[in-house]
Give the backbone structure.
Amino acid sequence: MLQHAPRALYIHIPFCTNKCHYCDFTSYVLKGQPVDEYLDALEREMERTVELLPPEEIHTVFVGGGTPTVLTPPQMERFLASVKRYFPIHPKAEFTMEANPGTTDPDKLAAMRAGGVNRISFGVQSFDNVLLERIGRIHNVDDVYRSIENAREAGFDNLSIDLMFGLPGQTVELLADSVNRALTLGLTHYSLYGLKVEENTLFHVLYERNELPLPPEDDELAMYMLLIDQLKAAGYEHYEISNFAKPGYESRHNSTYWRNEPYYGLGAGAHGYASGERHVNVKGIQPFIDASLSRLPRLETNAVSEQEAMEDFMMVGLRLLQGVCEADFGKQFNGRTIKEVFGQPLDRLLKEGLLEETDTLPGGGYRLSAKGIPLGNEVFGAFIGSE
């Protein structure tokens, strides 16, 4: 397996103003948390990480959470300075930070700009205040407009928002209204996710009690297809199952994951992939801080076999609408071909019309068909455990 030093860096800031009803991420309510001690621990992890695996130039940085923008301006300045101290950031790197509407005042945004952030991804989820309250968000629609305006005034022009569909009590009409409002903002990027009811969330408790009024499956599919139609009609390229962008504004960092390339993963609960190994970090705040005092704060590290890496390549690569590329596969896996390794599932999916061959990629390749796009999970699963 071909592996170079990661050119992508993910850092997790696990603090939030509150816990949303659907969220199972490693995140903790901010009040009373040892934020400065956590930032100390992150610096120690950065130092040990670059000693173990010296970085080349970093082309993409993604600061996720949690809500990284709950850091105060001085904490933000300190954190971003530490990133630049340990990692050589390319002058034209994409540097994304997740934000919650209402947590980005002008001082915070100025600290972000000065620290190198050049792309913000806002967790909007809906333009319906009733739905926002129902899913446990603490911002409202006015906060969204104000936050976007503040970001633009601070000099940010690469802005993305997340929207969710399949929410309790959401209808196709309500979603269409949210998307129309989102499009009036004229942003460069939109991410659109269907609700998944995860364990260890309030929604899971309600679901188990039959108290979560989710839309029927047919409506959820209609919502997804409506999103595709509205965004494409507005001039956005549907470049990944859940993501739409103006040309040239595709998420370069997330493309690292979809191309199965290595990345550094730092912070509580963060995942990383480098030197043929995947790791996940210690999750709790204090356990992470304690672990960082004496070692890399890893919870577990697993070697990735070539077969597993090839399966991952197909599973994440087919999320991209351009598909998976024979030349890239050969480069990563010693000249092997997709057809040679995955002949059986490929033949079946081509026959069923869920995949199609494409000659727009070097050496050719395979991509989801129009029929396969809404059935993506079924397609991806076909490559797991197939020898």
